[in-house]
Write a structure and sequence with these properties.
This protein is an all-alpha fold. The chain has 22 helices and no strands. The longest helix has 21 residues, at 52-72. The protein is elongated.
């Protein structure tokens, strides 16, 4: 009998790893396989134990038996665990053991793409059974949604992948989530249209305050920052209080803050976004005294004292004493006595200085 110590180190490593993982079923089968192998080596009198070919044959026999035993002990939980954890080596072993990676609408590839496991994506795409275009939400959509630009890049190298699938979902969701690197890469593909879904890309980026994405989208002539009636991207950015996006849209020049009776200024006043009110008042196209009831009544009705204070510093508002007195009544009626007192003091001072 050949002594156990004579086993190659990598075989010992397999046994010890299985034992450490408490895979007792596997350890038992491996030990039986080793016993069989060692017995055959000891009983073989015709083969030269010094011959490399004979040793290689027996090593391959052991590996084949190990693979069969390991495969027999695999479960669906093993597959789920290794894929969701990005264990490339384990997934590769399971693929060699015959596990089908295309089950559940290409769940493995879609999960690897969603998690950003580039090496695992590469491994799976080399398997002929994997189709990256399959699934209710294909891999390119999931990678774009979670901002994994390296995975997006790899998927786009595959001719089966269409980044415009699901009505341009990839560019729309990447813009909404603020993944500027993914947006940049997708826009390099001629199949991608950032104006799809009623300018959803610029809307999503504006509402969520992703100024870098807004800047990149505005460089594309297909993107229209004035789309929407009445809620254009600048109106929605004012409503959400995203000052950087408002500034970006104003710099672009195409977004018109006067649209729909200066709805942008009204929304900023209602929300109390004084920084945006300041940006709009410094834009030459905006007139805070136009379109009654106007921004001052909005600010008074919704109780925004900082906005009222900023509007009073604008001569176009401050000079309209009659309108300011009506605004005082609005503030009092809606339960904002502090704003009402501020406006009364301003009106009294204006009347006194006039006399």
């Amino acid at each position: 009998m050949v002594p156990w110590i004579d086993l190659p180190p990598h075989v010992w490593a397999l046994v010890l790893r299985a034992a450490a993982a408490h895979e007792l079923f596997v350890v038992a089968h491996v030990c039986r396989a080793l016993h069989k192998l060692l017995t055959s080596r000891a009983a073989c009198t015709c083969a030269n134990p010094e011959t490399d070919d004979d040793e290689c044959t027996k090593t391959h026999a052991f590996w084949a038996h190990w693979r069969d035993v390991r495969c027999a002990s695999l479960t669906a939980d093993d597959w789920t665990q290794h894929v969701t954890s990005g264990h490339v080596a384990h997934v590769a072993l399971m693929l060699r053991a015959g596990v089908d990676p295309s089950v559940d609408e290409q769940w493995a590839l879609r999960t690897a793409s969603e998690e950003g496991y580039l090496e695992l994506v590469n491994l799976l795409l080399r398997d002929a059974r994997v189709d990256p275009s399959a699934g209710v939400e294909p891999a390119i959509c999931l990678a774009s949604e979670h901002g994994h630009v390296a995975v997006v890049e790899r998927l786009l190298y595959d001719a089966r992948v269409d980044p415009s699938v699901l009505d341009q979902y990839a560019i729309c969701v990447a813009s909404s989530r603020g993944h500027v690197a993914v947006v940049e890469r997708l826009l390099c593909d001629e199949r991608v249209d950032p104006s799809a879904r009623a300018q959803s890309a610029i809307y999503g980026a504006s509402i969520n305050g992703h100024v870098a994405v807004v800047e990149r989208l505005l460089c594309d002539e297909r993107v229209d920052p004035n789309f929407g009636d009445p809620d254009t991207p600048i109106v929605m950015a004012c409503c959400m209080g995203v000052a950087e996006v408002v500034a970006c849209l104003l710099r672009d020049g195409r977004a018109d803050p006067r649209a729909d009776d200066q709805r942008s200024l009204d929304q900023a006043c209602i929300g109390g976004h004084v920084d945006i009110v300041d940006l709009l008042l410094r834009d030459g196209r905006v007139d805070p005294s136009a379109n009654a009831p106007g921004p001052m009544r909005r600010a008074c009705s919704f109780g925004q004292p900082l906005v009222v204070e900023r509007l009073l510093r604008d001569e176009r508002v401050a000079s309209g004493v009659a309108e300011l007195r009506r605004c005082t009544d609005y503030a009092q009626r809606y339960g904002h006595p502090g704003i009402a007192a501020m406006l009364r003091a301003h009106c009294d001072a204006a009347v006194e200085s006039a006399t």
